[in-house]
Amino acid sequence: MLPFDLSPRQEDRAIAVCGLLGGLVLIAFGAYDRSDHLPGWLVALPLLATAVLELFRRTHPVWTASLGGLVFIGTVLAGSLVASMLMYTDLLYAAVLYGLPRMSKVLHLTGIGCTVVLSSLAVLYGSVAGGLLVAVLCGLIFLGPVWTADLVRKHRDQAETERLRAEQTALLAEFDRRGAVVAERARMARELHDVVANHLSAIAIHATGAQSLARRQQRDQDDPLLAAMAVIRENSVQGLTEMRRMIGLLRAGDQEPFEAPRLEALDSLLAKAATSGRSTGLVFELTQDGPPGELPAPVELAAYRIVQESLTNALKHAAPGGVRVALTYGEQELAIAVDSPYRPGEGRSLPGARAGLIGMAERAGLLGGSFTAGPEEDCWRVRAVLPREPRTKETS
């Protein structure tokens, strides 16, 4: 591998060009065997052939190693050149690394055979010292690159095996997580159906029965009791519908798309709140400033829920008077303001765990926005600012 960010094809070309240029420099200075008897062009022929084979070291490793052996013989006969020998060792390395698995065994056997034969001939026709020197050189040329490539390939295959094992482990963990989520959603759906939905059904049934009883008693249509029973029945039926939709969503998981409420439905939401708050002297008003544009679904859902919870709190706790809801659409953010009358002792004190305020703050915080709520003089003010592009706290 070269220390540059090159593609495999570019890397092969770079090796071939560097080997060819280095060999030509050596030939120009006569740095090869028998330089005083052999012309430089004769030594350059096997050098050029080896450089050409380097271009195909990755795509045709078997052929380049086989032909490279023949070219190597020509290199030895034409005058040993270091550049040609180094490129030949690279061909052997590439044959083991990119070729078939059996190439390692084949080249090990041929390398050992060549080393034994050549070193034996050196001992037979020369000396023991010469034979040992030939054995070392042959080991470096024929066996060194094969051993190195074999080791690199084993580590690469082992790394690939570990990667696949890690992916399988992650996949199994994801299956387990999804199974646990599905089981928990099913348990929540059962609890909502068996407890909350049944209570809402009972409220709707009793409200309907009370309306029927009032009609049999021939009460006046403007009787506040009839209006209250109508509001109770309407809200319980609507809550039961929402509860059943939520139960279906929990049981269906991600298979069923979730249709988030839109800010376009705020008029309907305020109309229902006005009907519910008429008997307590509450009047609701909605104002919007600026072009709404296209809001991301999380931002629109959070804004709708914040307004909805603010109206619910006003119905539960506000003193008689006007409740004003104002939406300001800016280029970068959406500002929500809800003002309701607040005079200690004059409003209704219905039970609550302040979970609504916590939920509104969490919705704004998850989108990278801000939220405040509290009394100020004779008004309870709710302020929320949501960015048009949701961002988490880490990225804000």
From TrEMBL:
InterPro entries per the UniProt record, alphabetical: HATPase_C_sf, Sensor_HK_TwoCompSys, Sig_transdc_His_kin_sub3_dim/P
Gene Ontology molecular function, alphabetical: ATP binding; phosphorelay sensor kinase activity; protein dimerization activity
CDD domains: HATPase_UhpB-NarQ-NarX-like
Parts of the chain that traverse the membrane: 12-32, 38-56, 63-86, 106-125, 132-149
Residue stretches making up the Signal transduction histidine kinase subgroup 3 dimerisation and phosphoacceptor domain: 184-253
Gene3D superfamilies hit by this protein: 1.20.5.1930, Histidine kinase-like ATPase, C-terminal domain (3.30.565.10)
Principal EC category: transferase
Coiled coil: none
GO cellular component, one term: membrane
EC numbers: 2.7.13.3
Catalytic activity of the protein: ATP + protein L-histidine = ADP + protein N-phospho-L-histidine
Keyword field: ATP-binding, Kinase, Membrane, Nucleotide-binding, Phosphoprotein, Transferase, Transmembrane, Transmembrane helix, Two-component regulatory system
Protein name: histidine kinase
Provenance organism: Kitasatospora gansuensis
Lineage of source species: Bacteria, Bacillati, Actinomycetota, Actinomycetes, Kitasatosporales
